[in-house]
Amino acid sequence: MARVVTLDEVKLEGKTVLLRTDINSPLHPETKSFLDNTRIRMILPTLRKLSKSKVVIMTHQSRPGKSDFTGTLGHARELGRLIGKKVNWVNDIHGEKALAAIESLEIGEMLMLNNVRMDEEEISMNKASYEKLSESNIVSTLSGVVDVFVNDAFACAHRSTPSTTGFTNVIPCVAGELMSKEIRALQRVSENPERPCIAVLGGIKVDDSIKVADNMLRGGICDQIWVIGGVANLFLICSGIDIGGPSTEFLRNELGDSWDDVVEMANILLADHGEQIIMPDDLAANIGGNRVDTAIGELPIEAPLLDLGVMSTLKLSKAIKEAGTVILNGPAGVFEMEDFAFGTVEMLNACSESKAYTIMGGGHTATLVSQMGIASKMGHVSTGGGACMSFLSGESLPVLAALANNALRFDVEIIMHGIEES
Whole-angstrom Cα distance, residue 17 to residue 47? Predict the structure, then answer.
């Protein structure tokens, strides 16, 4: 990946910084209180580095039409509580109220704008070119009142919108501390992993996992792919095993129109790298509300398969503890149900006990790691499930491409001296 400019390379003291973050958080459906503030806590290192700047924070919460689509006043208050100083808030994004609030900022102060997805262009221009994005109201207005754009929204790195990539051709753009940390961690495992390197891929986003497996096996990144959850079910089907009606139909419904394409890719992977794809020996079925561990040889079973079996879990845990690098994304089953949490919990405990460098994908896995209190024992817990998977799939992430493009357009020396003298 081409280089991006980081906060360590620029001097932003006394300057006005537009900071794009992704602190989109799970909220209580009624009170809108924070159920998990991990993403807010993760931007604190960037804010500490910007403590002598005027910081304008731009972020989003959910998207229009969803029940948790709200303004960002609560986010400003929660951030203020965590960082120990007031975070001003304005019920505006790029209008007169926002511009006046930005103008009144003093050095060391922070201002949070309202939910950027309340701006129609942020939603509608998601396929526009950099040039078109730079003409949006968000970019054309805000770029005139700030000195530099700092992008710390890794969880949005796979999306191109005015607020994420629109500033590329207009003003100097810099990667925040969280963005830089995510890039370093993912480059480490994709370019020079410690061996043996294994990926553990699960959950129900099977199509994403197949792309990751394909990139990692064909690129020689991973020595083995261990499949769990819905990913395991699909590979079992493709290897000729009838897993039973309930689990097969669930997978078909989840994949929808992409079923044939995903199955074809899985079949090709099995043909080319079958010896490197490790499937379970047993699974746990939900029979009348009870957990029943079932050997693969005893399938099909007309009951949903909701977890790894005990023997497969022990086998996976041993492999994790013996690995040099572990890349994990997705649970082993429906861990929200107590009887079917065993595989996921034991797998994560093995990661916390392993000497391997462990990368945890975002989403439910990252949340559970946080709830279990073992995040500090992992090498890296990503804040972005979709972005992390896209990176590991070998795809170009729009935000990283934009930062790299900007680094070429605004050389670091020009950034430092241009901002310093502006």
Answer: 11
Angle at 63 between CA 59 and CA 66, to 5 degrees: 135
Q: What is the CATH number of the domain that holds 311?
A: 3.40.50.1260
Residues 235 and 275 in one domain: yes
Q: How far apart are CA 321 and CA 153, in angstroms?
A: 32
70 token code pair = 């709200």
Please state the pTM of the whole predicted model.
0.90
Residue 131: DSSP 8-state: H
> Which of 20-34, 52-66, 342-356 comes out lowest in average pLDDT?
20-34
Q: In this structure, is residue 251 part of a structural domain? A: yes
Last residue of a domain, one of 301, 328, 355: 355
In angstroms, the Cα distances linking 63 to 115, 129, 133, 204, 276 are 9, 22, 19, 22, 40
Range of the domain at 258: 195-355
> Is 362 within the bounds of a domain?
no
How would you write 261-304 as a 3-class SS string? Answer: HHHHHHHHHHHHHHHHEECCCEEEEEECCEEEEEEHHHCCCCCC
* Span between the terminal Cα atoms of the chain, in Å: 30
C-alpha–C-alpha distance, residues 197 and 199, integer Å: 7
pLDDT at 419 over 80: no
Tell me, yes or no, whether 211 lies in a domain: yes
Contacts of residues 119-124 at CB distance under 8 Å and 24 or more positions apart, as own/partner, are: 119/93, 119/94, 119/162, 121/162, 122/60, 122/161, 122/162, 122/163, 123/63, 123/64, 123/161
Q: Who contacts 361 (Cβ-Cβ below 8 Å, separation ≥6)?
A: 327, 328, 329, 330, 382, 385, 388, 389
207: helix, coil or strand?
helix
Q: How would DSSP label each residue in 137-205?
A: HHHHHHTTT-SEEEE--GGGTT---HHHHTTTTTS-EEE-HHHHHHHHHHHHHHHSPPSSEEEEE-SS-
